[in-house]
Amino acid sequence: MDPATAARPGRGGDGARPLHVVGLGGTVRPGSSSEQALRTAMRRAEELGATTRAFTGAELAQLPMYAPDSGSGGPVAEELVAELRRADGVIVASPGYHGSLSGMVKNALDYTEDMREDRLPYLADRSVGLIVTAYGWQASVTTLTALRAIVHALRGWVTPYGAAINSAQCSFADGMCSDHRVLEQLHVVADEVVRFAELVSARRDPALPGLPGGRR
Question: Where is the NADPH-dependent FMN reductase-like domain positioned along the sequence (predicted)?
Fold first, then answer.
């Protein structure tokens, strides 16, 4: 049994584990708007019964630049990949830097290459919610589009609603969102990730073969 299958048993029946949602995002600045937005969405996922693990800037900044076949990227990289293998859903939050996602968030996503030989390679069969924060609308929208393309390439199921947050109009003082409409957006992201993960997990059959290009 490959690591992904062992880590992600199907749900249903007595003793079934709760859904697991992994978040990654933020910046090197502690308490950044993208980090706070991610934590808000993760709290919502917990309210819906999921277990969660968030990787924010403090940890993502420790990841070396991804190099295929270079061996372990260190303890943070190993834990990130292990958590993604366990994940039923993923939430990604990036700042909009010059029209696209940050290099730090992209580098973290590149570590899914270590999952390429799994029965469920990359982000296959995982619902993925997206959050972007930027000082203005243009970068928010273009970054959201870029993230959608990346997740599609990683075979993840992007949830319909993506949260684009203009940090010029919304703040997260003490971790609290100042705009109730933005809070609702973040809740929708988490709701869709958990709802889709429930549907997929309830129907998952461990005996099914891997996806094309995945573990045979």
Answer: 20-164
pLDDT over 90 at 42, yes or no: yes
Using CB atoms within 10 Å of the CB of residue 107, give its burial: 0 to 12 exposed, 13 to 18 middle, 19+ buried: middle
Does the structure show a pLDDT above 50 at 9? no
Buried b (16+ CB within 10 A) or exposed e, 60-85: beebeebeeeeeebeebbeebbebbb
Query: Of 77-81, 138-142, 146-150, which range is least confident?
Result: 138-142
Backbone angles phi, psi at 12, to 5 degrees: 105, 140
Angle at 203 between CA 51 and CA 55, to 5 degrees: 25
Which residues on neighbouring strands pair with residue 94, listed in sequence order?
132
DSSP bridge partners of 67: none
**Residue spans per domain, the chain:** 20-203
Amino acid at 115: M
User: The domain 20-203: what is its CATH number?
Assistant: 3.40.50.360
DSSP, res 97: B
